[in-house]
Design goal:
The complex is a heterotrimer of chains A (267), B (314) and C (313). Chain B is mainly alpha-helical and 314 residues long. Chain B contains 13 helices and 2 strands. In chain B, helix 4 runs antiparallel to helix 5 and helix 4 crosses helix 11. Chain C has 313 residues and is an all-alpha fold. Chain C has a two-stranded antiparallel ribbon. Chain C starts with 6 loop residues before the first helix and ends with a helix. Classes of the chains: A alpha/beta (267), B mainly alpha (314), C mainly alpha (313).
Chain lengths: 267, 314, 313
């Protein structure tokens, strides 16, 4: 369904994709939010989904993680259909996500926020008599170090600064030890310095843990700072896929951004 | 296991079912009993459902409002000697006034609080209002006479049936239609309906949402008072009547789907049918039937027959 | 949220335990009776808090499981003359089993729908207890429960209750400080996030419900023995509301809060009834005060005062 020029269409080059989306449609009471999208995510990619506001980025994301059910079409992760799978089962397959709005446990400490995810990954959340306090301390602390939140270990998560909460959320997603990490607007609402820190953090972590990354973003600085593949979503369709350089020079993409006022298209 | 089997033996052999099948007249009376009871319950439960739909508060004190309606009817007819019609009106207006005080002094502070808090605050009201009724009317059980003109029975061709209960069979649907017209056809109704969807949008449009809340609460409470007044001739005003009715109303609105007027109507009818026919088939087990019915409905439709799924379920 | 196992806490626990052991030696019969009943209600309230405080779902029908435990114990001890230990274990098992079924349905819903459904289920239990006269005694209650002779002695029964309640509290304490409880708190705080780290949120809430119901059943079984009878009022929804108020009064964000709330409310009721018949009004006012001014209950109040005091000095 891609209407992009053939040279940007790299589907046939890499054989084993991790995530395959086939002819995905999502209709909200007459409004076609996602319109026949085909999409492939390959191992070790850092793939960004961009597009003007209202292009359907978040909807697409929620369809991928089973947060929304598609009207038609398929989402396959390593060949398994994710349809009707509960979130906890999707995570078990190796697919973790973060959210656009902060999604942490606000009344628990930073350490506990991460620890819970580690407990869940080790399937110890049904241990009724295993004392929680010292459980998986080292592993949780390593994650704290990774996202540089060691000093905030005992802070109540809801009281953290915004950027730090985002970092915490990243750590929570990482705690489930995913192969594929889906980040919805990882830097939304951050200050410039926080954003720059986040970019280097995400890059560093994804290469250190050989993660495959899929993220949506409206800040082009972040997109070109992190991504090695970019897909452009417009009116529910993917209109171009390719390397940052290719997308930057794509005429359709230029038209979309410039034609639509280019409010968030400039980097 | 044995007492259980005995229980079954005792009750399944009951002649109720046989009579029901062999005597259509008896079955018809049961049907009318079901409808009149269902309609009385509808009037009360509609208030509860309306308040939940807009204010998102489950009002435990709704049963106490009902009880006050019944007591007021007793006072107006038996003590002041006015006619039953005025008593129903007095009950509705009296409850509106009471609701106004409660809403202004208490409820308006809790709309943005957690649901648990709201629920418990209305429970605190149940406790206090129960004592208040005891202070005013004591602990006696009163009887209220059927209104003149409706005290007898009407010839329906097949059978005679109490006129008062027939009146309920007509009044219930009339109130349903009136409420429906109010919500669907008037400006206020549309605003009320919009308030169930998106409060913030309404305030953004410059509509005084708190006033809508107050009005809805008053109307809902008036329905409870009216329901109590209408029930008083066959359900003698007495302490404790509030605790029973509220749970039955909960059953009805949950079966129908919280916040749905049509659902409440259907739920009330089903409740009436199950309660009456259930008690014919297995005497004295009507409560068990009512709650079993609820269970079955929820098994099939967790949010009730006409309810919508919670927006943020798990 | 969690009680740190600090030295002060341990000392407080030991003092409480010592007081419990010494009460019969120094106190009157009346005091022994009151303490027995408070202990039972404490266990009841502590069990409820597993659902409310830890899983964040408000059960408005917790009395049902109390009643199921009580009636089962009453019937097995008296009608079938089972030995005490077998009867108690069976009461717990039966309650656990029934709670499991109810929880299956209730955990499909959340928030207010959950509360309503638990209420409806408890009323089903009430209706059955009320109508099944041949087994439960209906509205006359199940009277004349036979208990082992050795427990007929007031003091013996008191120590028996202390033993059972303290042991159960210890088990509950372990559960409430386990990996399970920590994950449960995460489900309470943010179910979506908890789902996306791999926690089956519904199953977690199911377990919380079952744990809570089971210990309520045990409390009910003790209650039946204490009063040598079980009555339908114990299953009525207002009883569920009472134990809910106990939990809130003490403070649902601390482990021992509900027990403190149970003791406070029970004593307040006894004292109020000396002076006025309008205890419900007093209870209603207490409830309003907690809701509007003491969201964290008495434990929260003490913490606040202590924080204030330490800051001043």
């Amino acid at each position: 369904m891609t209407t992009s020029s053939p040279k940007l269409f790299s589907e046939t080059i890499q054989p084993h994709s991790l995530l395959d989306v086939k002819n995905l449609n999502k209709n909200f009471a007459g409004f076609q939010a996602i319109d026949g999208v085909n999409f492939h995510l390959f191992p070790r990619e850092r793939h960004a989904i961009i597009g003007p506001n209202g292009a359907g980025k978040t909807t697409f994301f929620n369809l991928l993680t089973g947060h929304l059910q598609p009207t038609s079409g398929q989402v396959l992760y390593k060949g398994h259909s994710l349809r009707q799978l509960a979130p906890h089962n999707i995570v078990r397959l190796g697919l973790a996500r973060s959210f656009q709005l902060i999604n942490i446990y606000p009344r628990m400490t930073v350490f506990q926020n991460i620890q819970v995810a580690v407990i869940a990954r080790n399937k110890k959340h049904f241990s009724f008599f295993k004392s929680a306090n010292s459980l998986f301390q080292r592993e949780s602390e390593e994650l704290l170090e990774l996202v540089t939140l060691v000093e905030e270990r005992e802070v109540i998560a809801g009281e953290l600064a915004y950027g730090k909460q985002k970092q915490l959320e990243l750590a929570i997603s990482l705690a489930s030890n995913p192969e594929v990490l889906l980040l919805d607007e990882p830097t939304a609402g951050m200050s410039t310095s926080e954003t720059n820190e986040a970019i280097s953090l995400i890059k560093e972590i994804s290469s250190a843990r050989s993660l495959t990354l899929l993220f949506t973003e409206h800040d082009m600085g972040v997109v070109f700072g992190i991504a090695d593949q970019i897909s452009v979503l417009h009116h529910g369709k993917i209109v171009a896929t390719g390397s940052p350089e290719e997308v930057r020079n794509n005429t359709t993409v230029k038209n979309i951004y410039l034609g639509d006022g280019a409010t968030d298209g400039q980097s | 296991m044995e007492p259980f089997l005995e229980f079954i033996r005792e009750n399944l052999g009951s002649p109720g079912l046989a009579i029901l099948i062999s005597n259509p007249q008896f079955a018809f009376i049961q049907l009318l009993n079901s409808i009149s009871m269902g309609m009385n319950y509808f009037i009360i439960a509609a208030g509860l459902s309306l308040i939940f739909g807009v204010l998102k508060v489950i009002n435990f004190a709704h049963g106490a409002f009902y009880m006050f309606g019944a007591y007021i009817t007793y006072s107006v007819t038996e003590l002041m000697g006015l006619s039953f019609f005025w008593a129903v009106l007095a009950a509705a207006i009296g409850l509106m006034l009471m609701a106004l005080i409660i809403e202004r002094c208490l409820f308006q502070f809790i709309y943005d609080k957690e649901h648990l808090m709201q629920l418990l605050l209305t429970f605190a009201l149940v406790l206090i209002l129960g004592d208040l009724a005891k202070i005013i009317w004591g602990t006696d059980q009163y009887s209220v006479a059927y209104p003149a003109g409706l005290a007898g029975a009407t010839n329906l061709g097949i059978t005679f049936y109490p006129s008062y209960r027939l009146m309920l069979c007509v009044l219930g649907p009339a109130i349903f239609i009136a409420l429906w017209l109010f919500i669907e056809r008037t400006r206020w109704g549309r605003i009320t309906k919009a308030a169930t969807q998106d409060r913030d949008m309404l305030s953004a449009l410059g509509i005084n949402v708190p006033v809508i809340y107050t009005i809805v609460f008053l109307i809902g409470s008036a329905l409870a008072g009216m329901g109590g007044a209408l029930a008083s001739p066959f359900n003698s005003p007495a302490p404790g009547m509030d605790a029973n009715i509220i749970v039955e109303c909960f059953v009805i609105v949950i079966i129908g789907g919280l916040g749905s007027l049509w659902g409440t109507f259907v739920g009330a009818l089903i409740f009436g049918l199950v309660f009456n026919f259930g008690s014919v088939i297995v005497p004295n087990a009507q409560d068990v039937f009512a709650f079993l019915l609820l269970l079955i409905v929820l098994l099939i439709r967790p949010w009730g027959l006409y309810g919508r799924a919670e927006s943020e379920g798990q | 949220m969690t009680d740190p196992i600090d030295r002060a806490g341990i000392i407080l626990c030991l003092i409480s335990l010592a007081t419990l052991i010494l009460i019969p030696a120094v106190g009157s019969n009346y005091l022994v009776d009151v303490t027995t009943e408070i202990l039972i209600y404490s266990l009841f309230a502590l069990s409820l808090n597993v659902i409310i405080g830890y899983s964040g779902n408000v059960s408005f029908g917790h009395a049902a499981y109390f009643a199921i435990g009580g009636y089962t114990n009453a019937i097995l001890l008296t009608t079938y003359a089972w030995p005490l230990v077998a009867s108690l274990l069976a009461s717990i098992t039966v309650t656990m089993f029934i709670t499991g079924i109810v929880a299956y349905f209730c955990t499909r819903l959340t928030d207010i729908y959950f509360a309503m459904l638990t209420l409806a289920f408890s009323m089903l239990v009430w209706a059955i207890a009320f109508k099944w006269r041949s087994v439960t005694g209906g509205d006359d209650g199940f009277v004349g429960i036979t208990i082992p002779e050795i427990l007929d002695q007031r003091i013996n029964f008191y120590y028996f209750t202390v033993l059972v309640v303290v042991f159960s509290t210890w088990i509950l304490w372990l559960i409430c400080h386990s990996a399970f409880a920590r994950s449960l708190l995460a489900v309470r705080e943010n179910p979506t996030r908890a789902g996306f780290v791999g926690i089956n949120t519904r199953l977690m809430r199911w377990w919380a419900f079952v744990v809570a119901g089971t210990f309520a059943g045990l409390a009910g079984a003790l209650f039946a023995m204490l009063h040598r009878g079980m009555y339908v009022e114990s299953a009525f929804w207002t009883q569920s509301a009472t134990v809910l108020i106990m939990t809130l009064l003490g403070g649902m964000f601390s482990f021992f809060g509900p027990a403190i709330g149970a003791a406070t409310l029970f004593l307040l009721e006894r004292i109020t009834n000396e002076y006025t018949e309008y205890w419900p009004t007093v209870l209603g006012l207490i409830l309003i005060v907690i809701l509007l001014f003491l969201p964290d209950g008495l434990v929260g109040l003490v913490t606040k005062i202590r924080n204030y005091w330490t800051r001043e000095h």
